[in-house]
Amino acid sequence: MDTYDLVIRGGTIVDGTGAAAYVGDIAVRGGMIAAMGAIDGTAEREIDATGLTVTPGFIDLHTHYDGQAIWSSRLNPSSSHGVTTVVMGNCGVGFAPCRPEDRPLLCITMEGVEDIPGVVMKEGLTWEWETFPEYLDAVEARARDIDVGVLVPHSAVRVYAMGKRGADRAPADENDLKAMHDLISEAVRAGALGFGSTRTAFDRRADGEHVPSFDVGSEELANAARAVRDGGGGVLQILPDLGTFGSSAEKCFSLMKIMSEASGLPVTYTMSQINEHPDHWRKLLHLTQAHNKAGGGLVHPQFFPRPVGMLAGLELTSNPFVYCASYQAIAHLPLAERVAEMRRPEVRARIVSEQPGNALLPMTAMTRQWKNMYRLGDPPCYEPDPADSVAAMAEREGRIPEEIAYDLLLEQDGRALLLVAIANYAQGSLSYQLEMMRDPHCVIGLGDGGAHYGLICDSSYPTYVLTHWARDRQGDRLTLEEAVKAMTSTPAGVMGLGDRGILAPGYKADINVFDHAGMALYAPRIVDDLPAGGRRLDQAASGYRWTIVSGEIILKDDQPTGEFPGRLVRGRQPAPVVREIA
Question: What sequence ranges are listed for the domain Amidohydrolase (predicted)?
Fold first, then answer.
């Protein structure tokens, strides 16, 4: 009789391929799935999964845990939502390669783009690296709960190769291009999963300047793509200008096409429904489909499965009044004292009547979009009725939107949150996203875990997909099999992680066991667990009975177990030869 490390018995298996669910057992040995079907053998540990759903661990291919992976062994919120593999280094921002004198520049870049406080990075980053391979070694040295892969970041490479000229966005000459090519190839040979970049004007340093990779020439992007190919291959990630600043879909897509054709490698790019240009995404999708049909490197639009939004609140980075002079005069007060002041009629009258000053960063200037602003609530509602917007409420009540937003912020003793749907909600519905979800080349991502600590908490999206899209949504929605495939084998395929994302013998034993009927997602809340006492948004869920990484249980009944089997994923991983199911 065979013996195993772990056997999961009697669960409803949704294997990640999109195939119909079935009831069966899964046996694990040596961190791998050893057998499936009716398991007769014995095990050191057994899980009774009767009535529960068993899936592969989820994969989020767009995070920013570049700092958190250095100072923390837990990559939460992601690991609290069934995610067992994350990819960081996206959007071209990160901390390697980096000379000592350039550390402040990379930190203010990350502070501005990803809303990570400078004091947190100053306290938390250990800086025992200069080169990218040395950074990978530092990531690998820390035990953690889930696996991490890393993209080499464009802005860091540019500054390392070009110095101040790179930071100032000077055009790259032939020598610069060769230096960047060598750095990127070196990174891929050392284990980078590919290369990340950004071209959007929204991404700015904390001092308001554009990031180093903004508006670089197309040859620089093609050069980076060839460098990844020459280093052994990988994926190319980019955040383009999505039409917000007037570029056509054809101009936007030309960047992905250039990178794809220069290297023959897969490209994934951020695709959102921009409120001002609600059909721009569909034009991009059609261009993508035509390109992929013609052959060459596949292009994968990457989308977020609920509104792309900022959270506004009195404890957060931004709210509609954060740049009003009368609010700034009391912003330093502890929350309870600030709320008491804000409830004074004369203070309320001053703040709601003032026009805000100029915001240094574009993201924080967006919290006065009254038509796109909603009470988040608990449980949180991410597909609200347009009639519940701040603008609609103000019109019904004959008041100005500022008064409505002000009163909402004071709910829950000042801890209430507002959702500002800055994208993905132009028509007051998420129905259009089903077209993205069912396109074979689109991929869910953009959880942004490890970043935007005081603005968003999007890495909870796997629980949202399971509860809203595959259970609760009225009208058209996903089957559970579709939802699981979208978060497992699809992102694994895009990233070249062939060893995970499917439940089958020979695959990595990254597994979720959850109560789908009883699963719940709760409103984000502030916690103060960052270095230097820094604060961030966290978001809890319930219903995850067990989350397993490489055969070890990291989460039981929604609580971390203190096990840290997560590892650095060095480079693309081949798919196993799948044996017959027992």
Answer: 45-554
